[in-house]
Amino acid sequence: MSKFDIDEALIRKLGLLLKETGLTELELEKDGQRIRVMSQAAPATVVHASPVMNTAPAVAAAPAKAEVSKNALTSPMVGTAYLSSEPGGTPFVKVGDRVTKGQTVLIIEAMKVMNPISAPANGVVKEVFIQDAQPVEFGEPLIVIE
Fold first, then answer.
1. How many C-beta neighbours within 10 Å does residue 60 have?
2. What global pTM score does this model have?
């Protein structure tokens, strides 16, 4: 069986199309590879990508918050968010902490790569929307810095 290359941009586009149209499922098959994006229950989204003959586990995202500040730092990618550098470690930030622009506030693991996520500006952490080791999707609110 050939290697399955994941097109993250396509998965993001399909996920956004689901949200915009209110559809519950989209599936695309091309050259023996299939990508299926499903919505379990609004607003949680399940993204599933696999070769036609092999099924990989789905990744479920947390429900979006009802009211999110315009200052919310959102996820730049799909992956798993970590609030500290190691399991059980001290969190990078917590509510009430002062942060400086460029300071690492969390890490998102995507495709076995740890991506530090930095504060976009100086401020105070007002809210943390996610739990440690939580799956996140593109554009999902992570924390609020004001």
1. 15
2. 0.55
